[in-house]
Amino acid sequence: MKLDKYFTKEPCNTGRQFELDVFRFILIYRLAVVHVFVDGSPPAALDVLGIPYYFDSVVGGVIGPTRFMIMMGIGLAYTRHGSPKELFTRGVKLWVIGFLLNVFRYLIPSLVGYAASGDAEQFLAPLPYLFFGNDILQFASMAMMLMALLRYFKLTPAKIMAVSLVMSIVGTVFRSVDLHNNVLNVIGGHFFGVETESGDPYIYSDFPLLTWFIFYAFGYLFGCYYQRLKDKKRFYNIVSPICIVIAVAFCSWEIVGGFGMMMGEGANVFYHMTTPEAFICIIACIGFLIIPYYLAKIIPESWKKPMTSVSRNVNSIYCIHWVLVFWIVDVLLTLIKGDPYLDPIPAYLLGLALSIISMLLAEVWSKIKLNFKKRKQV
To answer: Burial letters for 5-28: b for 16+ Cβ neighbours within 10 Å, e otherwise?
Structure first.
């Protein structure tokens, strides 16, 4: 099959692709909703089919973070600031941002909650693991630094994808490992899936590098080809429906069977997915890209700039929404009524409100940074 039938030699889809901004917008607006359900639902409700399960394991699982990482990879293909040095620097900055986020979303509110209630089990016991555990910003930081290294050695996108595939296979072999030491488990959890034999709820190994780098690598490879795609409409009309059928059939099989990344045992089962499951998440992403592609064609012109701004502000929105969610759900609600749990409708409305507030605050922060930069250049 000749690829030049489907791809140009030089990039033809350059600049911001609005359908990708729409896709990112859809993912972003649900961030706070997902995390209100995760933190504001009884643990048992997250493990059985229902609204909390849907937002935790489907929207916040297969649909959410995998696509954020794929989009991050696509962004790398389009950026003008993707040299190894720039990429490594961005990774270091992101690590610092993740550390500062943990200060404001975990350290300070947990200490305030303990001071107000005296409940050490609720507010202090999980704090070290929340603060030092692996989360998506820590993963993204390490992924950028690894990508910088691979690009420094001039690996092509296809070879980087091959490296990520090997990493995923290794991650599959070493998934749900217990090093029998909490400090080692916290450190190791950044690189491979850690799941203690005792089921310790305080060990967080949510986005291990070996397992998750494949999404970033695929996004980069996909973005490089997407720039040269001759007919996007034909691609989505033919490829996306097939991908949707495959992904829905696979996930339904796991749900009905009660196993795998959708319904398996263990707190981190989705985060420690196998290589075949990772490819299903990739296939699902390609499939559902058809939705923002056609939405982008009918969205009013006046909506495009605000939606693009939200897409650009993803890091700020992520940080702001998490600070709001933890302070309100995990601290305030617990102090007021003894637990953070909400019924589905109040949880959804609160999450939606926090998403909107986060977007607005992120836009204000973006303008403050821009004004500061302009004054600095004068």
So the answer is: eebeeeeebeeebbbbbbbbbbbb
Whole-number Å distance between alpha carbons of 213 and 66: 10
- Closest residue by Cα to residue 68 from 215, 214, 287: 215
Question: What is the CB-side half-sphere exposure of residue 316 using CA atoms within 13 A?
Answer: 19
Within 10 Å of residue 1's Cβ, how many Cβ atoms? Answer: 4
Of 14, 36, 1, 47, the closest CA to residue 345 belongs to 36
User: Which of 151, 49, 5 lies closest to 90, judged by CA?
Assistant: 151
Question: What is the dihedral angle through the alpha carbons of 250, 251, 252, 254, rounded to the nearest 10 degrees?
Answer: 90
Is the pTM of the predicted complex or chain greater than 0.70? yes
CB contact set of 235 (below 8 Å; sequence gap of 6+):
6, 229
**What is the spatial distance between Cα 334 and Cα 318, in angstroms, rounded to a whole number?**
23
pLDDT tens for each residue of the chain, 378 residues long: 567 788 998 999 999 999 999 999 999 999 999 999 999 999 888 877 789 888 887 888 777 899 999 999 999 999 998 999 999 999 999 999 999 999 999 999 999 999 999 999 999 999 999 999 889 999 999 999 999 999 999 999 999 999 999 999 999 998 878 888 889 999 999 999 988 776 566 677 889 999 999 999 999 999 999 999 999 999 999 999 999 999 999 988 888 887 777 665 444 568 889 999 999 999 999 999 999 999 999 999 999 999 999 999 999 999 999 999 999 999 999 999 999 999 999 999 999 999 999 999 999 999 998 888 877 776
Rounded Cα–Cα distance for residues 14 and 337 (Å): 52
Give the closest residue to 289 by CA, choosing from 354, 242, 220, 322: 242
Residues in the chain: 378
Distance in angstroms (rounded) separating the CA atoms of residues 137 and 133: 11
In Å, how far are 85, 157, 195, 281 from 176, measured between CA atoms? 34, 29, 4, 20
Give the position of tokens 């070493």.
174
The answer for residues whose C-beta is within 8 angstroms of residue 321's C-beta and 6 or more apart is 31, 32, 35, 354, 355, 358
- Per-domain boundaries in the chain: 3-377
